[in-house]
Recover the amino acids of this structure.
């Protein structure tokens, strides 16, 4: 889902990451606080004050988002759902889940934990602000506290809109799931509403444009598009998961994989394989098809062209990454995750170091398409919690 991101720190075992797109929203929030919100609310302060308040407000706002996502993650963790950490990005924060909750109750508790924490932070900040005002604390301090109270309640409110995959949409899905006993159908309904809300935001963006509010229009448009994309993607992902559940790699792996031998020259590897096929790495096998290692396009690129004739594959071969290998018994969902994470576009299927087959994303998609066609894609697959 994310492009470039850096890990800030770890808390309770969860990595907190910043996506590159976050920089834009961080600047926008700080700038609008220092130039708009605070000068409007407290006209008597200095420019320097506004900027300090803007920076403090923005930092604490993003800290509040991390707490919100942490609460989702802690509940998920309690119910043994694998979590991949928290990422701050242009539209706020997200706690990445490595699976679906096992029951409607878990989904509900997980979803509601975030907004509840935001409401709690909001009221706590308001309480401290009241104490501060009574004790005559400096206005910049009480001002920032007031902003935090307001923004956290706003955050809770926005997230409680029943538009999947927002928290409110997850609560709605949990309710539908609980009453209809059908996760797939519940997700379909919740994601249609989520997508509809996305369209509503886009219409609102156009409306803003007529009034000359360009920044607001762009913002609503982007959030609308994001929500639409996210709601559809979540539904697709669930269909995929449901169809792949319990399937093993052996059912769709492709036998007779393209492999090279160690006594082959690098030139031959480039001419006969790398120019012909589009793989990022090639398995190297001996006569018995036992895996010796892997050779990557990157390794070859580092070698000067003049030396390609003088060197053989066996000289540059390295052990294959465990991220690129599976066994025939590997679960299809695991294989898919590995493909996603490595980005190498191919997995080697080995058994006792013997190279049996390969798996590419296309093999999984073809298998899935065939399976859904045979099942009839309109047949809902029931889950009883
Ligand atoms: Zn949330």
């Amino acid at each position: 889902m994310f492009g470039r991101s850096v890990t800030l720190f770890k808390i309770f075992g969860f990595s907190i990451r910043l996506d590159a797109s976050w920089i834009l929203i961080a600047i926008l929030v700080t700038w609008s606080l220092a130039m708009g919100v605070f000068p409007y609310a407290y006209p008597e302060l200095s420019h320097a004050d506004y900027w300090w308040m803007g920076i403090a407000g923005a930092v604490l706002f993003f800290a509040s988002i991390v707490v919100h996502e942490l609460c989702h993650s802690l509940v998920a963790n309690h119910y043994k759902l694998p979590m991949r950490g928290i990422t701050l990005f242009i539209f706020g924060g997200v706690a990445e889940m490595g699976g679906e909750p096992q029951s409607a109750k878990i989904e509900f508790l997980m979803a509601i934990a975030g907004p509840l924490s935001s409401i709690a932070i909001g009221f706590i900040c308001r309480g401290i602000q009241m104490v501060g005002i009574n004790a005559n604390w400096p206005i910049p301090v009480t001002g920032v506290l007031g902003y935090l109270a307001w923004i956290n309640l706003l955050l809770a409110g926005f997230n409680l809109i029943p538009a999947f995959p927002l928290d409110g949409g997850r609560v709605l899905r949990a309710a539908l799931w609980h009453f209809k006993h059908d996760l797939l159908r519940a997700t379909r309904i919740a994601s249609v509403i989520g997508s509809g809300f996305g369209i509503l935001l886009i219409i609102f963006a156009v409306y803003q444009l007529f009034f000359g509010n360009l920044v607001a229009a762009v913002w609503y448009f982007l959030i609308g598009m994001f929500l639409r994309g996210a709601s559809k993607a979540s539904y697709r992902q669930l269909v995929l998961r449901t169809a792949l559940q319990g399937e093993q790699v052996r059912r769709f792996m492709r036998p007779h994989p393209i492999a090279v031998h160690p006594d082959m020259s690098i030139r031959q590897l480039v001419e006969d394989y790398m120019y012909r096929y589009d793989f990022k790495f090639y398995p190297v096998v001996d006569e018995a098809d036992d895996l010796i290692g892997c050779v990557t396009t990157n390794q070859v690129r580092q070698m000067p062209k003049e030396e390609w004739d003088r060197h053989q594959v066996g000289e540059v071969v390295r052990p294959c990454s465990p991220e690129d290998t599976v066994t025939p018994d590997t679960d299809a969902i695991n294989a898919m995750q590995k493909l996603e994470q490595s980005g190498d576009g191919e997995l080697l299927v080995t058994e006792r170091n013997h190279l049996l087959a390969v798996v590419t994303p296309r093999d999984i998609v073809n298998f899935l398409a065939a399976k859904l066609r045979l099942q009839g894609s309109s047949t809902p697959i029931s889950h009883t919690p």
The mean pLDDT is 87.
